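HUMAN:
Sorry, I am quite new to this. Are you able to go through these amino acid letters and fold codes? The numbers rather puzzle me.
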Amino acid sequence: MERATGLLAMILANQARDPKKRPAPYTIADFTPHDQDDRPISLEDAKATWA
């Protein structure tokens, strides 16, 4: 579910991105911080990493 939501966020962010302010496009990794780790993570641990 996180990957699907991250993909939608990436698409919307790239549509609204100003290439002069941010020349590099957003990637799905920008919106899915826990996707690279194969270990399960609890909701409490995920919330602790949110800004």
In short: The chain has a mean pLDDT of 87. The chain has one domain: 2-49.
